[in-house]
Amino acid sequence: MTTPHSSRLRLPGARWARHLSEPKLFAAGQEWDVIRVEADLGVRAVRLLEASGTPLGPVLHDQTNDQAYFLVPPGSARTWQHERTRALGHGSWVVLAPPGWEGGLLRWMSDPTDSPPHTPTADLARAFAAATAQSGTNTRPRAHPC
After folding, report:
1. Hey, which residues does 41 pair with through a beta bridge?
2. CA of 118: how far to CAs of 45, 110, 134, 139, 141, in Å?
3. pLDDT tens, 68-96?
4. Beta-carbon neighbour count of residue 132 at 10 Å?
C-alpha cells in the first residue's frame, strides 16, 4: 500500500542508513570500509570525481576533526595504500550520520540517499593523486557546501 507521501520518500540503498535517526557508531569491514583523509584533500577529490562524472558513494565530513570519510567496498582497506589517507576496515569503528543529517558537526558531502553505496577505490585513488598534486599549487580550497 502506498501513502500520498511515499512517492517523495528517498530510501537509501544502504541498509545501515535506512532506520537511522541520529549518528551511530558502526563497525567497518562488513557493508563497507572507509578511507579517512584530511577534509581539504577530500573536498578536492569530491570535486574531481564529480567533474569527471565518476560514481561517488557516500562521503561524510566530520567537522570536529576536519576529516572526510569515503565509503568504499568492504575489504578495500586490506590493500589500500595512498599517502595522506588511512584505511579503516575490519576492527575499525566509524560514526555515521543519517541521510540528510543537519545537526551537530557531521555533514554529508555526498549523501547516502543520492549516491551509490561505495566509491570505486581505483577512481578514488586517482582522485586523491590528482588532488594531492593540486595541493602543491593551490591554497586551501573553498569550503564544500555540506
Report:
1. none
2. 14, 11, 24, 29, 24
3. 999 999 999 999 999 999 999 999 999 99
4. 17
